[in-house]
């Protein structure tokens, strides 16, 4: 860290560069083969998908295709049509675009080639409810899942079995055409089956597993959804013939961004400890654990020790308890600040790499030893009401990036200085 750079500036720089490493313009071209001869169709969905499409056309030139992204995340493409739809709760625009995409795929044959571009957010943007489930019912189920505190893996299993496009069904619709799917991972463990609910990847879970998840997380299912889960669903099992022509490649993942941050921090004189790129759990509980760890690490540091940076990624969850405006990263930051209670020499940042924490147009927040000075009661009240974004907005501690056009999940960094050499 230079003399002029504050801890907050350093943490923001680390986040900015972690996002840049996952820019589709950097990672997609390296994974592309030469453009195949014959008919080529580009499809995709996710918060990074429009940028991925832009990268494809930068390498291949104008292409035919249809990509669905979040409102505000569109990019100007030469031939690929970009449709914007709602995230995290789906809407009619996503449903209409998904129907059009499936119609295109149904028309393909063995001599055709499909390039699929999938990133986080695809699960909400690809909307094709199974059976007689209506869009309104789909929206209610999705909203209930988001408020339940269920881990992303559980959410995705239920979503797959209530869909006509997830769990390998998108790829099956294109069969026997050849398909290459490029993915940007936003899920703990980088399992392709859970990126965007795996529209091009088989899943061996069954309808009973989906029913169990609904019961475990108190998700009330309408009669139409219960009917779908009463028997076999359209989810494609792994290694079936309908997926034999599909090849999936992850082109960017959280681990790459954390490694880039580690390298940058080491160059600035930090010792770096990566806690993991696949952390899950309740945001406030993980924050309490990290606060204890940070203070333990600080207590063990010698007076002349180099500063320490704790890095972590993954996807935390929030169980809705109040009526506030918040997201997993801001809630983590608020709970971390409360647990640290103004501990000198500890600064932190928690942000979502897509620029959207929860449903708010805010990436996350930063905290310093002074964040809660004179505000502890307000902070505790905000945490109780899940109102972390409002709390940080009032003290100008939010991190607002706008659309980053990529998505490799949460990025958390805690900078720890010795008390004797603390930076306040």
Helix and strand topology:
Layout: H1 7-21, H2 24-31, E1 40-45, H3 49-60, E2 64-70, E3 81-85, H4 92-106, E4 113-119, H5 122-125, H6 135-148, H7 152-161, H8 169-174, E5 178-184, H9 207-216, H10 223-228, E6 246-252, H11 254-267, E7 271-282, H12 283-299, E8 308-317, H13 328-340, E9 346-352, E10 364-367, H14 376-384, H15 388-394, E11 398-399, E12 410-416
Parallel strand pairs: 1-2, 1-4, 2-3, 4-5, 5-6, 7-8
Antiparallel strand pairs: 8-12, 9-10, 9-12, 10-11
Helix pairs in contact: 1-11, 2-3, 7-9, 12-13, 13-14, 13-15
Q: What does it look like?
A:
The chain is α/β, with parallel strands linked by helices. The chain has two domains: 7-18 and 255-416, 3-Layer(aba) Sandwich (glycerate kinase, domain 1); 32-252, Rossmann fold. It is built from 15 helices and twelve strands. The protein has helices at 7-21, 24-31, 49-60, 92-106, 122-125, 135-148, 152-161, 169-174, 207-216, 223-228, 254-267, 283-299, 328-340, 376-384, 388-394; strands spanning 40-45, 64-70, 81-85, 113-119, 178-184, 246-252, 271-282, 308-317, 346-352, 364-367, 398-399, 410-416. The strands form two sheets. It has a six-stranded parallel β-sheet with strand order 3-2-1-4-5-6. A six-stranded mixed β-sheet has the order 7-8-12-9-10-11, sandwiched between helices. Helix 2 crosses helix 3 (49-60) and helix 13 (328-340) runs antiparallel to helix 14 (376-384). It is globular, with a radius of gyration of 22 Å. The mean pLDDT is 95.
